[in-house]
C-alpha cells in the first residue's frame, strides 16, 4: 500500500471514530484530519513521515504547518524560510513562557488572589494584570504571582506599558535586559527575588520608553 493510500485509509478510519462526538466537536475533528491529510499528501515517501515521527510534538506541528503552507500557496523558499522563522519564534516564546511557570485561567487567578472573576477582568482591563488571549478566553502568565498575591512592584512596571501588546509585555519580563550597567537580567527574576530601588527606577524607565515608542 502506498503512502497516499495509507493516508486515505487512516483519514477515513478516524472520521468513523468521531460519530460519538457532538456536532461541533465532530466538525472540528474532521476539519483537522483533512488539514493534516492535505499537509502530508505531498510527502515523498514513508521516510519523510518517519522524520516527522521522530520530532517533538511542537516541532512536528511546526513542520506540518510549513508543509500545508507550501502545498497551498506554492511559496518560494525565501517565503518558506520566513514563515519558519516566525513559527520558530512563536515556539520559543511559548517555550520560554512555560519555563517561567506557564499560564493560569481566570478562575485560577481568582482563587490565587482571593477576588472575584469580575475583579480579575477589571484589573486586566486597567493594565494591573498581564494576560493574553487564547481562543475566546484570557490566560494569565503565572510568573506575575507569588505566595498568593502579585509579585511586588510588578503592577508598577506593567502599568507603564499600557500601549504595548500583551505579547511584547510578556517578552519584556522574561527576556534579559541590561538593567544594571553591563549586566543582563530577566526583569521578572529581579522582581521575584528582590530588586533594588536603583534597579526598579531603571526598569520603570525602560518600560516607559518602550510604551512611548509604541504609542508614536
Automatic annotation (TrEMBL):
Domain of life the protein comes from: Bacteria
Coiled coil: 73-100
Keywords: Coiled coil
Name under which the protein is recorded: DNA-binding protein
Protein source organism: Vibrio chagasii
